[in-house]
Write a structure and sequence with these properties.
By secondary structure, the chain is of the alpha+beta class. It folds into two domains: about 200 residues, 2-Layer Sandwich (Gyrase A, domain 2); about 80 residues, Elongation Factor Tu (Ef-tu), domain 3 (Beta Barrel), CATH 2.40.30. Helix content is about 15%, strand content about 35%. The protein has a six-stranded antiparallel beta barrel. Strands 1-7-10-9-8 form a five-stranded antiparallel β-sheet. Strand 13 and strand 14 form a beta hairpin.
Length: about 300
């Protein structure tokens, strides 16, 4: 099991007697109901249900670790700290104390699990992919060399699994359902209130979710980045959707793009990105789960 340390991902730590109950009132998923052996995802939303950040959540006793894109950490720590008030906990950037490392094979036999060692390091598993269960490690200390190639491989795995995340360009762009966060286990619809909960619940219970993320690929020299508009041929008045995540891997660009479900599933629909050099054609495919389901399709 060879760990490859990540450069684009960091860690927020929430410590104290009230850490779990505080996060239970702030995040989209059930933190109080998770064990130390579970890995969960969760989001932090605005009052309008828009995602400010997304996390892999790891719990150890009275401490909770939130793994997320590093460039979003400062704003997320500030936002969460605003609501601590009388809760007995602190929220801080722990990237100087902990590193994240990608594991091509976590060696754990079950998905979305965590194994802790005596030094407080964690090995986490994601979902099965090509016969292995990839994952990541939370490692105490910050002395290992970071590898941008490891970030590319980790984010490629997330794209292949259909797991989107919030980066700086997409802050407040999407509600959880628009990036399939409910389908991959990032939202609990039974845990109670949190910021934006009414909007998220209304989209779940009162109608069909009309926008989802789909997988897409593109080749060529032009780099596509998260947050860029996606256009549908024949509809030039406004963008059809937006790029949720983008990663270059082995000479190809792998994307998760948020689109109207009806357009994405239309036979012969042609999608593209526009830039200063012209149009970049996209090959759009469904993610590895049913976008017409409601709630977590993995459970």
């Amino acid at each position: 099991m060879s760990a490859q340390f990540l450069s684009r991902w960091g860690v927020i730590g929430v410590d104290g007697d009230d850490a779990v109950t505080f996060l239970q009132s702030q995040l989209s998923n059930d933190v109080a109901g998770m064990s130390e052996g579970q890995l969960r995802m969760a989001g932090l939303c605005t009052a309008k249900g828009r995602l400010l950040g997304s996390f892999f959540v790891l719990r150890q006793g009275k401490r909770v670790y939130l793994a997320c894109r590093k460039e979003t950490i400062a704003a997320l720590v500030k936002r969460l700290s605003m609501f601590v008030l009388r809760s007995k906990c602190t929220v801080r950037d722990c990237t100087a104390d902990y590193q994240l490392a990608f594991l091509p094979d976590s060696l754990l036999t079950s998905p979305m699990r965590i194994q802790w060692d005596e030094q407080g390091n964690a090995t986490a598993s994601l979902r099965s992919l090509h016969g292995a269960i990839p994952g990541f490690q939370l490692v105490a200390g910050n002395a290992q060399a970071e590898q941008a190639a490891a970030d590319d491989q980790f984010e490629f795995v997330l794209q292949q699994l259909g797991i989107a995340y919030v980066s700086q360009p997409t802050v407040e762009m999407f509600i959880p359902q628009a990036i399939n966060f409910d389908l991959v286990g990032g939202v609990s619809f039974s845990k109670g209130c949190y910021p934006g909960q009414e909007i998220v619940a209304r989209s779940h219970y009162l109608g069909k979710v009309k926008r989802r993320v789909f997988q897409a690929t593109s080749t060529g020299a032009s780099t596509i980045t998260a947050g860029q508009d996606v256009w549908l041929a024949g509809k030039e008045n406004e963008p059809a959707g937006a790029v949720a995540t983008a990663v270059n891997f082995n000479g190809q660009q792998y994307l998760l793009v948020e689109l109207p479900v009806d357009d994405a599933e239309q036979s012969g629909a042609a999608f593209c990105i526009k830039n200063e050099t012209g149009l970049i054609a996209l090959n759009v495919q469904p993610p590895p789960y049913d976008v017409h389901q409601k709630g977590n399709v993995f459970e």
